[in-house]
Structure formats: structure tokens, C-alpha cells
Amino acid sequence: MLVSREMWIRGPVGAGAEARVTRAGCRTAVVVVPTMTAGTRLLDLVPLLESDHRVQVVFTVPHTTDHWPGVEEFVRAQHGLLLPWEQAVQHTFDLVLAASHRHLEQLRGPILLVGHGAGTMKSHRYSRKAETPALPATGLDRELLTYRGRVLPAALALATEDEKVALESLCPEALPAAVVAGDVCLDRMTAGTAFREHYRQALGLNPRRRLVTISSTWSTDSIFGRVPSLCRAILDALPPARYSVAAVLHPNVWTVHGRRQVTAWLSDCVEAGLRLIPPDHGWQATMIASDWVIGDHGSTTAYAAALGRPVTLATDPGDQLRTGSIADLVRQNTPLLEAGPLAEQESAAVRHCDRLSSVAAKAITSRPGEAAGILRSAMYRLLGLAEPESPPVVPMLPSPRPIEA
Q: pTM of the full predicted structure?
């Protein structure tokens, strides 16, 4: 439903704002959240500038005929000031933060575009939006980065040098905007390993208990799409005295099917002890707390691999993966789950762990530990403000809060 002008909020932007604000003269930055996945990634960036008294941060959720449900509720739960979409597109901002290509052409102001998963380039070989599986998709294609001959992002954050090389052939006119920034999510997770025991305690684990996490992306070729009974099977197969089991599902699973339905589908598992992690309550911390991850081709599995967690793949989408993509590299260096004793398969995952971690980490970032500083510099350059002298500080990752039976 489109928002009428009568529903515009009396906020810190737009006509008459100078009579309403208490902090005057602030630069305005808008965080564009078309999906929960994009919003989760942008929340890694917002702390880099929102404490600056010279900056006012607001949020907006695009309203179109095919918008994703539940996104406004997600944003409101972060307690950010939410501008109606129709109001946001009428205002010129000093900075636009985006982690999706959707609706960029409607926004006014310099755009910083970041990827919303592991790597800027997609792992799927073909576009999921195409009616037939014939259109290649990388995430750096000209049709995504330009509009009527104009490059949309003023700063395009890339994760690796290889992505910059790819951009040169896919959309060379966007090269001046490219910034190889690394991956802020992986950097936060790496820093979060110092709090591993804290996160394990939040999940109710003692030091002797091993945590097995099932990591599923969305779509029909994911774990939850192909093997919805896997959570129950793993719970039943592992000795409960030594193991706990958690599940992390892609935000789109929750968004499309609804929290009530997903929880109902897994209710027997939750009653049997499954730690079911909501999409906005600690998936990164759960990966840090894990001892073994059973995953698929999604970004969460790749992050776990890069973090040094033993990984076993439960599904393989075959030729649907782009050759050389992050998911493809993880697949090449990871054992597949088979029928048989799990203890042997966990041991096999541990044996592959070091090589897998090295391969995954290099594929995800060319600037390990540097993303926050690089991205903050890019944001302040677009804002036209001097960067603070203090080093960038990103808050500790939130603790996991499993759904209760």
C-alpha cells in the first residue's frame, strides 16, 4: 500500500524541519531497507556514524506492489526513525546507505552500496528473478548498477580485488565509484570470537557440550527446502548428553512463510531441544559458538567456514552455482553429508577445516579487519564531513536468543 502525503511524519527532514529539530544543521543519512537481509547488513554500518552529533540517521522501507512483509516491523524493532517511503523519495539526503539494488534510481543523494551477503558477487549462476533460467547474474552487472546511462552508486563497496577485476569487464563505467572495503560482517564475527564462551552461555551450553548448527539459506534448493526433516534427524542421531543442536534459517524463510508458520514447522524440534535462532537475534553469535556447522550454499555457511568452523554440506545445487563463486569454492573444499555415523563425518569436517577456512576467508575479503575503517571513510567523504579522529568502533554482536518451546 502506498503511503499518502497526509501520513508523512513530522521528522528532522523536509519542509519546516528547522522549526522541529533540537539538533540543527545535521547532515542526513537514510538507511534503505527493502529486505530484512539488507537491513541486517546495514546495521553493521550504521554504528560507524550514528553517534556523531553532526549526523542524523533515518530509515525507510520501500513500499511497492511487491514489497516483502515484516520488514517495517524489523526496522521498528531497531528503534530507528522510520520515514514513509513516499516522503523519503521526495527528500535529498546527504548520504544513502543501501545493501540492495532495489529502488536506487528513486532515491536522491550520494549512494553507498554494499553487498548484503558473503561477497558482492552472487553465487547463483542465474538470476532468480528471470522467468527462465537463462540470465547470468553476478551482482555487478550494468543493468543493476546503472539507470538510463547513469551510474547509481557514488561509492560501490567491493569485498575483494577479484571483484574489482570483474567489475572492469561487467560495468567499467562504475570503476571510479569502486572501493575495495572487505567484509564488515566477517570482521565483526572474527572480533566476536573473543566472546565465544559468552555466546555459548547464552545458548545454555557448558564447556564440554558441542554445538552443531544447521545453516540453511532460502529457496527450494536449500537445506530447509530440500531436507526439512534434517533438524529432527540430527537431533535424534546425536547423543543428547554431549551435543546440542541449533538452526539458523535465512531471513527470507521467515519473511515469506511467516514466523508463526516456521516456528510451527519446527515446533517438535524446539520441544526436543533445538535452539531455533530468529533472523534478527544472533545468527552471527551462534556461528561463533558452534563446533560443527551442517550447511548449504548460503552466505551463513560461508561465514562459518571463513571463521574456522568445521563444515559439512547437506545439499548441493549442482550447476546452479556460478563457477568460482564463494559457494562453489566452499563446495569444492567441504565433505558432503552422507548416511552413516555422524561422528566420522564430524571428524572429516575437522580434517578439512584449516584449508576450507583459508579458501573461504580469501574469497570473502581482501581487506581482513579493515572494513569498518574503509567504509567509514567512504561515508564521511560522501557526507562532506571530516572523519572523527577516534578509530571506528562497532558494537559487540548481539547474543543469540532462541525461540522458546
A: 0.93
